[in-house]
């Protein structure tokens, strides 16, 4: 690539006052593909264009694949945590069978019993999600400084510029990703409460209180 005076190059290429192409720099690099396509649609089919996702396609696809795998890993982790909610509520239902039977005998409906355990499970999930979001956001905002402090304290370097393309660990908090993770966590938490709540609603007072 060579840089030269534009008027000299126009003379050499016999373009007159025209130019052979334009190069744009955007504030949002992830908008390059959509912006390029929008410009080409406006100019017409006789114009061609490309963006960095074409020239660096392999890197872009690797980053996209890594992001999908991280999302899948986070979903699996949330599912494991939701299973803990299931086991906790099942043990609570087993332990509170007598109390559930008493509530049923004084007129509580099965739907009310289900609601009690759903609310309890959602409360557990809400506390866990709130703590997780707070810690995750704090780490996302301070991870570069934290890694720098660890490297300076221990005298080690996690990312060697001679091996990797970067020498530090960049981090950008995206609230859209945070909201999707929170919604997925709430959804899995709600689903995890249904089976224990259903078991609680199926408790028969006569069978439980027979031996009380």
UniProtKB/TrEMBL annotation:
It comes from the Bacteria. InterPro entries: ABC3_permease_C, Lipoprotein-release_system. Pfam families: FtsX. Keywords: Cell membrane, Membrane, Transmembrane, Transmembrane helix. It is a multi-pass membrane protein. It is found in: Cell membrane. Residues 72-205 form the ABC3 transporter permease C-terminal domain. The keyword Cytoplasm does not apply. The chain crosses the membrane at residues 69-93, 114-140, 146-166, 178-198. Belongs to the ABC-4 integral membrane protein family. LolC/E subfamily. This is ABC3 transporter permease C-terminal domain-containing protein. It comes from Vreelandella olivaria.
């Amino acid at each position: 690539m060579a840089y030269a005076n534009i008027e000299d190059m126009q003379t050499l290429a016999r373009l007159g006052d025209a130019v052979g192409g334009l190069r744009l720099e955007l504030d949002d690099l992830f908008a390059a593909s959509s912006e390029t396509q929008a410009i080409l649609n406006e100019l017409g089919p006789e114009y061609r264009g490309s963006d960095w996702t074409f020239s660096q396609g392999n890197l872009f696809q690797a980053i996209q694949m890594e992001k999908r795998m991280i999302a899948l890993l986070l979903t699996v982790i949330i599912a494991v945590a939701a299973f803990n909610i299931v086991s906790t509520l099942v043990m609570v239902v087993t332990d509170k069978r007598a109390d559930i039977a008493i509530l049923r005998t004084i007129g509580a409906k099965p739907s009310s019993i289900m609601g009690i355990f759903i609310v309890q499970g959602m409360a557990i999930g809400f506390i866990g999600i709130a703590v997780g979001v707070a810690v995750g956001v704090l780490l996302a905002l301070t991870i570069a400084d934290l890694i720098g402090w660890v490297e300076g304290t221990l005298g080690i370097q996690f990312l060697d510029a001679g091996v990797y393309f970067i020498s530090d660990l960049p981090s950008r908090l995206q609230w859209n990703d945070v909201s999707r993770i929170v919604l997925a966590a709430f959804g899995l938490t709600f689903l995890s409460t249904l089976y224990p709540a259903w078991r609680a609603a199926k408790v028969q007072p006569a069978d439980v209180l027979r031996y009380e």
